[in-house]
Design goal:
The protein is α+β, with helices and mostly antiparallel strands and 122 residues long. Helix content is 22%, strand content 34%. The protein is globular, with a radius of gyration of 15 Å.
Length: 122
Amino acid sequence: MWLDVAGDSMGKALPGGSRVLVRAAGRPRLGQVWAFCDAGGQIMVHRHLRRRAGRHVFGGDANAFTDPAVPPERLIGRVIAVEVGSRRHTPSRTLACWAVLRAGSRALIRRVRALLTTVGAR
C-alpha cells in the first residue's frame, strides 16, 4: 500500500510530500523504516532503533527523541520504496546507520566523532 508522507521527522530519507510503499513483513530489523500506528491511532513512518521488552522502539532520523515503544499488534509493515516526485528509491542504509548510532549511547557517538576527526586529521 502507498502512504503519503507529511512532516520532516525523517529528514532526507523521507521528505514531506513524498510517498512510501509499505509491505507486510515479519518483524522489524535494526535500521529498517516501518509504518505503525501510535497510541492515538495515527500512522507513523519511522526507523526501527531497537527492541525492548517485546516492543519496538522507532524514531525519526531528524529527531533527537524516540517514539514510545510500539507493541507488535500496531505494526503495519516495512517501507520498501520511497517516491519523491518522479524518482523512486529504497530507504537509505547510510542514514540508517547514523540514525541508529544517534539513538544509542551518547558516549558512543562522541567516540565515533572523535575517531572520525582523528582519521580526518591524518
